[in-house]
Automatic annotation (TrEMBL), chain A:
This is DUF2783 domain-containing protein. It comes from Kineobactrum sediminis.
TrEMBL record, chain B:
Residues 426-438 have a biased composition (Polar residues). It comes from Kineobactrum sediminis. Residues 35-376 form the FAD-binding domain. This is Monooxygenase. Pfam families: FAD_binding_3 (PF01494). PANTHER family: BINDING MONOOXYGENASE, PUTATIVE (JCVI)-RELATED, TRK SYSTEM POTASSIUM UPTAKE PROTEIN. GO terms for molecular function: FAD binding; oxidoreductase activity, acting on paired donors, with incorporation or reduction of molecular oxygen, NAD(P)H as one donor, and incorporation of one atom of oxygen. Residues 423-447 are annotated as: Disordered. The lineage of its organism: Bacteria, Pseudomonadati, Pseudomonadota, Gammaproteobacteria, Cellvibrionales. Keywords: FAD, Flavoprotein, Monooxygenase, Oxidoreductase.
Amino acid sequence: MNETLEFADLEQVYDLLAEAIDQVGPERETLLLAKLSLLLAHHIPDISLVSEAIATALANCDTAESIGRPGPDL
Amino acid sequence: MRPAGRRELDSLYFDYPTYPFRTPPELAGESPLHPVLIVGAGPIGLVAALTLARLGIASVVLEQKDTLNDGSRAICVSRYSFETLQQLGVVDRFLAKGLGWTSGRCYFRDQLIYRFAMPNPEDERFYPMYNIQQQYIEQFLVDEAAKYPELIDIRWQSEVSGVVQTEHAVELQVETPEGSYSAKGRYLLAADGARSAVRNLMDLRLNGKNLPGNYVIADLRMEHDFPTERRSFFESSANPQATILIHKQPDNIWRVDWQVPAGADLEEAVSEATVRARVADILTMIDHTGSWELEWWSIYTANTLCLDDYRHRRVLFIGDAAHIVPIFGVRGLNNGIADAVNAGWKLAYQLRDGAGHQLLDSYTPERRGATLDVFRNAGKSSRFMTPPTRGYVLMRKAVLELSLTQDFVRPFADPRQVQPWIYDQSPLTSPDQDSSDFSAGPPPGAPLQNIRLGNDDFLLDYPGRGFNVLYFAGKEPVDAAIPSLAEHLRKLDPLLRTLVIGTGTAVDFAGEWTLPDPAGHLARTYGAIPGSLYLVRPDRHVAGRWREANAVATIAAMNRALGVPCDE
C-alpha cells in the first residue's frame, strides 16, 4: 500500500479501539478483534499484504514470549 | 520526604535560605491601597511580580513559608519560558545553572524503540528544554525581585486567612508572627498553588478528572555518565509493571519516576525501604554500578482539573491555583509562567487606565484555552503512560510490541512536550485580512519566532517592555507615514518600541531601533516585503500583521489588543 493513515488519525483509532474493547468486555474482545480484522482485510484487495501483516503480528508475539516478561494484567 | 535522620530542608546540595519577617506598614497603623496583591512566592507569583515591576506596577507578594520550596518539584523549563525569563532580565543565571536538552529515548523490555528530537534550529538562542530544580528557579527570581525594592515587597511568613472583594478593592486577612492585619489591593493574583488558600476561601472548586495511577518521584545524587535526555521505560527488567522516567538535573542530581502498581499499598510504596529497593533495581537496569544517595521523594497522581473561570472580578488565578495538569509533557510550570505573564501585562495596562474593559475579560479565554489544549495532549500522554482501562492496556501492549519492528507506531511513545499556545481565537487578536497575505512568519496570536542576526545576536534580544512594532524596510528608506504611526501608537502605549528591520541602510527616525538584516533572512522568515508590519503584544504574541503597513488598521488592532471594543 502506498497510502497510509495519518498519525493523528491512527491516534484516534487507538482510542476508538480501546473504548470498543472496554465496551464488549474481556470475554468477547478476541471475537471483536477477529471480526474487525476480517472487516479491514475486506478493504485490502491484495492478500499478500494481509498475510504479511498477520506474520508481523505473530512475529512480535513470539518476541514477547521469548523474553518472558509479561506486562500488567495481560 | 527525606531519608530517616534528615530534616525537611536538609538537602544534599542546596542551602535553604531563611527569609525574615519584616513588619509591614499595615501593622504600624497604615492602610495603603496596593495596586496588586500576589498570594504565593513560588515561581508563578514571582514571575507575575517581575512582569508587573518591569511595567512599573508595584505589588505585594504574601508567602506563608520563610524559605523556598522544599525538595524538587518542577524541573523542565521550555524554550518559550526561557524567552520569557530573558525578557524579565533574569535568564543568565538560568543558563549558567540549567542543563539544556533536545532529545529523548523510549525503551520497551530494555530495547530502544523510539528516539525523539525536539526541533533546535540555528535561529534559536535557547534549547527546546532545560532541566533545573525548582528551588533554583525560585532563588533566582527572589534575587531578581530584590532589585526592585520600590516595586516588589515580598512578605514572608504571611498566611492568608480571609478574602473579601468590595467594589474597588480586594481585602486579605493576613496572619503573621506579629499578629494579623488586613491588606488592601486593587487586584489580587492568586498564585498559591494546587491547594490554593485563596481558591478555598472563595469557595471555588476545580472541575475535571482525577486520572488513575500513582507515581513515586525521587531525586538521587550520583556520578552517572549519560547525556541530558528524557528516558522512559515500559515493561523494563527493573520493574515490568511500572512505567519509569529518568531525567538529569544540575549538581549530579537525577530524577527518577515510577508508577505504583494498581492496588498497591500507597503507604508501603513511599516507605524509604521500598523507595531504595525500587531505585536500586532501576540503577541496575541502566548499568549504574557506582554509589548513590537518596535526596528526596514524593508521590503524585495525574489530574486534569481547572476552574471554570480564571478571573473572579478583581481576583485572577494563575498557575496551579487555576489548573492542575498531568506532569507528562512538562506543562505545569511552563503554563503557569505563561499565565503569570498574561495576567501581569494585562493588569499593568488596566491599572494605567489605557485599557478597555475587554482586556481583563480576555485572560480566561486565552489561558483557559491553553489549559484545555494541555488536557487534550497530556490526556493522551497520560493514557499511554498509565492506561486507565483494560482496552487501553491492551492497545498499549499492541503498540509497544509492534514498535519493536514497526516504525509507524513508535510516535505513540512520544511525550508530546509543551508547545506555546496560540491566541488566534482571542478577542484581542486581529486576524490576517487575507489568508494569502503572508506565506510565512508567526500568525496573529502566535509568539514571535526567534531569528539569529549574528553571533550571540538574536531578534528576541531587542523587543522593549511594552508593545512592539516590527517594521520591515528592506532596502528602502522608512516610509514617511511610519514615524507618525509610531507616534500615534505611543500615545496608546508609552512603552511602545519600533524595531526597523532593513537590508540596506534604512533611514533611522528618532528614538527607534534599527536591526540590520543584510541577507534578508528575517524578512523571508516573517514572510515580509518592504513595508510589512507586525504589531506585537508585551508578551511577545502577535496582535496583528499587515503585508503593507496600514496606519488605520494598525491603530485599530492596537486598540483591540488593549481590550477597547472596536466601534465599526
